[in-house]
Amino acid sequence: MNFDDTPQEAAFRAEARKFVEMNAPKEFEAELSKASLGRIKLKDRDIVAVGKAWQKKKADEGWSCLKWPKEYGGRGATPIEQVIWQEEEGIYGKLTSPFQIGEGMCGPTVMAYASEEHKRKYLPKLASGENIWCQLFSEPSAGSDVAGLRTRAEKQGDGWIVNGQKIWTSGAHYSDYGILITRTDPTVPKHKGLTMFFLDMKTPGVEVKPIKQVSGASDFNEVFFTDVRIPDSQRLGAVGDGWNVSLTTLMNERMSIGSRIATGFPEIFAFCQSYIDEDGTPAIEDRAVRAKLADWACKASGLKYTSYRSISALSRGERPGPENSIGKLVAGVMVQDIAAYAMDLEGAAGTLNDAATADTYGPFQAMLLGAPGMRIAGGTDEILRNIIAERVLGLPSDIRVDKSVPFNQIPTKGR
Amino acid sequence: MNFEFSDDQKQLRDEARRYLAEHSSPKAVRAVLEGHAPYDRELWKGLAGMGFLGVAIPEEYGGAGAGHLELCVIAEEMGRALAPVPFSSSIYLAAEAIMLAGTADQKQKYLPGLAQGTTIGTLALFEGTGNPSHDKIKTSAMQNKISGAKKPVPDGAIADIAIVAARSGSSGRDTDISLYIVDLKGAGIARKDLQAIDPSRNQAEITFKDAPGELLGKAGEGWDLLMQLLDRAAVLVAFEQVGGADRALEMGRDYALDRIAFGRPIGSFQAVKHILADMYVSATLARSNCYYGAWALSTNAGELPEAAATARISATQAFQHCSKQNIQVHGGMGFTWEFDCHLYYRRSNAIALGLGSQSYWEDALIDRMRKRNAAA
FRET label pair with A314: which of A161, B138, B279, B350, CA 20 to 30 Å apart? Predict the structure, then answer.
């Protein structure tokens, strides 16, 4: 048992480290180091523009979309090399958030289902950051139950006409392309009548409206489709096979091992060391505070070493076990609890969320307002528990009353 | 990175699991629980014969000389099977203490017997309520004669020797404490069985009256040694806890698959699924933290004090959580004497206290993290 690289891994790491040292945008080092949770903001610069520049530099020397084949802009790297790269990229990895959906979800789906011509046309520009891709799946009436989506695509000539609405689309406001799942046949059961496409976000009839969230930020959007025409050549997979295609996309989402998930623990630990409470001593000297910190320390450590176990499997060339599926479930609740606890220690002033006092009160107010989203986006806590119960523990799936009913006969109103 | 047990270690685990499934069945655990014997002597002999007791004891002292990763592997299986034997007392506490601080002569004298199971050892630390603290140790050592009362002493009624923490000085500092090896079959010893929540393991009170003790380690270093010993034992016990947590999770999962209510397996209800998913989460966090502890223990890493506390806290949470929720998943049947759920519930709550309680370790962990931060 050890944490050491194999000789090949060490050589790869040295190469990666050298590239980062020579090329990373060091002028943002301080800002990026501080931004540990939630949306990254740079004071004077647009994060997307800075991210694009970094992504381009990486792509030029083969450090973007590492696992992809070289001909599509990747490096043909192994999964463990991908993890090592993430470790070496470190804080600069935060600049790549606008590209992650493209790299992790859209790209692999295009790679699996698009024509060779399209792959060569679109994937290298995705890898180099020139084009940003988004994923148009969720709808107002199809969140956790994404197969209940209602956006219609109807065949017309050699293309399709799309009408409907998507929601919670991360980054749609700065995206160039998207993968879009639609309903092409409402007369068959819900999983069977879906078809996947990709489209140019500038296609006439596509309208993007940012959603203002609890936190005040707008990371997500509503996307409206009014008579949007998509050529049939942009279909991904067979007509009616969209559900299986979407599983390829989502499977890739859950394979993001080694990406360090924010828990809020370093922040609360630092805060409790420096914050002087009513008795004139640092909060960390209080027994009740220590009990809370210890619990969170063990959870943060448990997540870290759980990902090390998965990385070890990758290093041996094996598929990691299911253990990594716990990450977001543990971290989301932790962030929320930590934020509320720190504010409780601050007393009445904990309510203040003024930019001028942010240094005094820490990041907790912003964490509190952002945390509910962590527990919902990318699978709610409840859906994640279902997944663990069904796929890891082997429990039977829930009885689904709408499973074999034609989609257009499923009730649409509760009461 | 290779943060995983080796193939040989996994083979050892499989071997131990098979052996214990046969020889430490719930029926065997119940025989001890229901008072038919203070521990399972046949199982104890069998474990010695398999070489499991001495797995981390060097070959020159009669062990297998494999190492602490192998001992972690065995510990997990012992916890999984709730083995009703004094393994933790004799191996994690007594043998570890002697390996840590014993002279070559002491190692030669005691370790072969501990490895063979012909000697059972334990640690006599606590004196009534409270967590490990040098202030609480009133037992005295005058010219290596021990006087005082220790309780609870795990496996105290069946042990042959005890490592005893006693006061050899009067400065009021922790350097007043020294460790002694005491022959519990010798003069000046009185023992009394104590009733406990987990009768599958023995708890006793031992009274010492001028009992001859043999100094272990240097005089005045006893407290420091104890702290090291508890860290080492914490990692090993944490593996037992993870083994128990995993088994409780499996029992709950299996019952949820078999039990039908409202016309369907109860495991198809989300309310039940979510209980089991949360059990999986806590067991997984604990296992990963235990691996960290195992790494630190087996390499004598500087991180051991932090890793041990982390593994301990996490594993205590997981085992208590899984054993408690296993009963909940079973419903009324889980509350019967007949079902095995309570065996795990009892063990999880007893084992949570034996090396100091959860709040003690939480406090220790934060202390250790602060020290590291200050040093960095």
Answer: B279
Shortest distance between the Cα of A220 and any Cα of chain B, in A, equals: 29
Residues B108 and B130 reside in one and the same domain: no
Can you give the residue range of the structural domain that contains B246? 224-375
Do you find a cis peptide bond into A282, omega within 30 degrees of 0?
Answer: no
Spatial separation of the C-alpha atoms in residues B294 and A65, rounded to whole Å: 35
Q: Which residue of A has its CA nearest to B361?
A: A294
Chain A / chain B CB contacts < 8 angstroms: 163
DSSP secondary structure letter of residue A42: -
Nearest to B277 among A298, A311, A389 (CB): A389
- Look up the CATH number of the domain holding residue B261: 1.20.140.10
Number of structural domains, chain A?
A: 3
- How many domains in chain B? 3
Strands B161-167, B121-124: pairing is parallel
Same domain as A100, residue A31: yes
Length reported for chain B: 376
Single out the residue of A312, A328, A196, A203 nearest to residue A261, CA to CA: A328
Tens-of-pLDDT digits for all 415 residues of chain A? 888 899 999 999 999 999 999 999 999 998 888 765 656 777 788 889 999 999 999 999 999 999 999 999 999 999 889 989 999 999 999 899 899 999 989 999 999 999 999 999 999 999 999 999 999 999 999 998 999 999 999 999 999 999 999 999 999 999 999 999 999 999 999 999 999 999 999 999 999 999 998 888 888 999 999 999 999 999 999 999 999 999 877 766 545 555 578 899 999 999 999 999 899 999 999 999 999 999 999 999 999 999 999 888 888 888 887 787 899 999 999 999 999 999 999 999 899 887 776 666 778 998 999 899 989 988 899 999 999 999 999 999 988 889 899 999 998 888 8
Specify whether A110 is located in the same domain as A21.
yes
Does the beta carbon of A330 lie under 8 angstroms from any beta carbon of chain B?
A: yes
**Does residue A333 belong to the interface with chain B, where contact is any CB pair within 8 Å?**
no
Give the residue numbers spanning the domain of A69.
7-131
Domain boundary among B86, B102, B118: B118
| A311 to chain B, closest Cα gap in Å | 7
CA distance A184 to B298: 60
ipTM of the prediction greater than 0.85, yes or no:
yes
- Domain membership flag for residue B239: yes
Residue B1 within a domain: no
CB contact under 8 A, A290 and B313: no
Which residues of B fall within a CB distance of 8 Å from A392?
Answer: 280
Residues of A in contact with B264 (CB under 8 A): 396, 399
- Residues of A in Cβ contact (< 8 Å) with B239: none
Contact list, B268 vs chain A (CB under 8 Å): 395-399
* Same domain flag for B369 and B245: yes
Which of A5, A273, A298 has the CB atom closest to B313's CB atom? A298
Which of chain B's residues have a Cβ under 8 Å away from the Cβ of A298?
285, 289, 310, 313-314, 317, 365
Conformation bin of residue B58: beta by default, left when phi > 0, alpha when psi is -120 to 50: beta
Residues 6+ apart with CB under 8 A from B181: B98, B106, B110, B161, B162, B163, B164, B213, B214, B216
Last-in-domain residue among B118, B148, B163: B118
Claim: this prediction has a pTM higher than 0.90: yes
State how far the Cα of B329 lies from the Cα of B241, in Å rounded to an integer: 20
In a domain, residue A400? The reply is: no
Q: Are B244 and B286 in contact (CB under 8 A)?
A: no
Beta-bridge partner residues of B264 = B261
Residue B2 to residue A386, Cβ atoms within 8 A: no
Q: Which stretch of DSSP H or E encloses residue B264?
A: strand B264-265
Residue B2 lies in a domain: no
Q: Does A302 touch chain B (CB under 8 A)?
A: yes
